[in-house]
Design the sequence.
DNA sequence: TTATTATTGTCCCATAATGAGATAATAACA
DNA sequence: TGTTATTATCTCATTATGGGACAATAATAA
């Protein structure tokens, strides 16, 4: 889809979107034993931002988030959870929006609400890192993964949003089956443990972690994985279809 | 505050509120061993609704919720948690709003967004039942407590919102100190247990519940409560100031 | 072929948390 | 003084968890 069409779409219908409401997505991936977040580099600004967008008048908020996710990753039916609304009075979005818009899209200033304070619904998404095709939107130049530990300079209150998303992920780690969305189809027990350790930022014991995971009765043990290393080959697992 | 002033305030400033965004509060109280919710009877309609309202342009969403809570209960600094946003495409608010507004406040129809679909941020609040002074707003005739088990006919998707609030309350029961907000200053162990049983809808064992609560080291044991009944008098407790 | 090495998969035991019944304490009343 | 209805504890079996030990094994070195 050509970028200019997106902008035209954006401005075409005066009342296409719910004003002053946006959706921001914290997209988590797991690669090389590290938790990553997908971010957009804003045009002509030394700032990065979360993938986000407006909610169409005829669209549910969850659908808006799914649409935004699909546009940035190429994936459909992504695991998605609403986790918090950011709407404090001092969200100083005005200066940012002004900077972003005035450079390339001064036309959008005709919508007065574009410059007002936003209330943003935060979603977090879990994706299989290897399947994502990062795609920038019409406000951004690049779309890239960043390691959670080394985030770049972020626009708005997006650093706080990412932080809150991670906290929510930690709390829900046990009740939701986080692993099944962040890992590829098959994986070793060490990879699963490594994911938990990365999210929780705490080391876990191999024996107890394995016992716990197997007792949950959610994993299927497949064949062994021969890595070529000089040691016992680990089993591969997959999540049971429920 | 006279009711008419509220309406005038409401319509005075064209751009006072964020359009199509509302806040709905599920206010929980505990009385006679029962969990209660505060509801408003809509004027000229056989329907009840959650206390709610719009968010002012210069106001944080949490502040909006606190303001609404204060108006309906007379209480300040209420315990409050955001729990979910309701914004599916098929929230059929339009017919309701039309019915409500056309009877008494057709002027408000001049704001076109008043009739559009709303995205509503759900909050739940915990209050000391005995301290609340229920006060209707300009759209409602009465403001009353209802037992969770016997809710009346509700407007919009408010029944679903209440249900989700209760589910969230159950999940967070252990991590947040729910009791300290729903109970009066002092209480017996049985009253605390009864609160837990009501929220969880499951019976608990007296001995194990007491052991658990005391082990948390959050309760202070005060004097005994002589009820006049022919049996051992229970201790009174209060939550420790932290 | 055999020993070595780095991991992986289990096992075992001490300790902590939980479920469930039993017992002791006591305030009012018969 | 005994009875009764509760409340507060105690005890014991079961389950979950923390932490160390050991056996299995895939490649490599001897």
Sequence:
């Amino acid at each position: 889809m050509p970028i200019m069409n997106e902008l035209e779409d954006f401005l075409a219908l005066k009342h296409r979107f719910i004003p002053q409401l946006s959706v921001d997505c914290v997209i988590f991936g797991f690669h090389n034993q590290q938790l990553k977040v997908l971010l957009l580099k804003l045009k002509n600004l030394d700032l990065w931002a979360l993938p986000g967008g407006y909610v169409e008048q005829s669209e549910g908020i969850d659908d808006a988030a799914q649409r935004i996710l699909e546009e940035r990753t190429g994936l459909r039916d992504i695991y998605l959870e609403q986790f918090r609304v950011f709407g404090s009075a001092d969200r100083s979005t005005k200066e940012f929006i002004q900077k972003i818009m005035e450079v390339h899209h001064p036309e959008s200033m005709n919508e007065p609400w574009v410059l007002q304070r936003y209330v943003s619904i935060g979603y977090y998404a879990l994706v299989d890192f290897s399947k994502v095709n990062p795609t920038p939107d019409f406000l951004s130049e690049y779309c890239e993964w960043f390691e959670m530990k080394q985030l770049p300079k972020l626009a708005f209150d997006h650093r706080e949003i990412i932080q809150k998303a991670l906290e929510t992920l930690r709390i829900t780690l046990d009740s939701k089956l986080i692993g099944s969305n962040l890992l590829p189809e098959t994986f070793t027990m060490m990879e699963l443990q490594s994911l938990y350790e990365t999210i929780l930022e705490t080391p876990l014991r191999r024996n107890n972690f394995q016992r716990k995971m197997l007792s949950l009765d959610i994993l299927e043990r497949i064949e062994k994985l021969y890595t070529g290393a000089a040691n016992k080959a680990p089993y591969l697992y997959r999540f049971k279809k429920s």
The longest helix of chain B spans residues 158-172. The radius of gyration of chain B is 20 Å. Chain B has seven helices and ten strands.
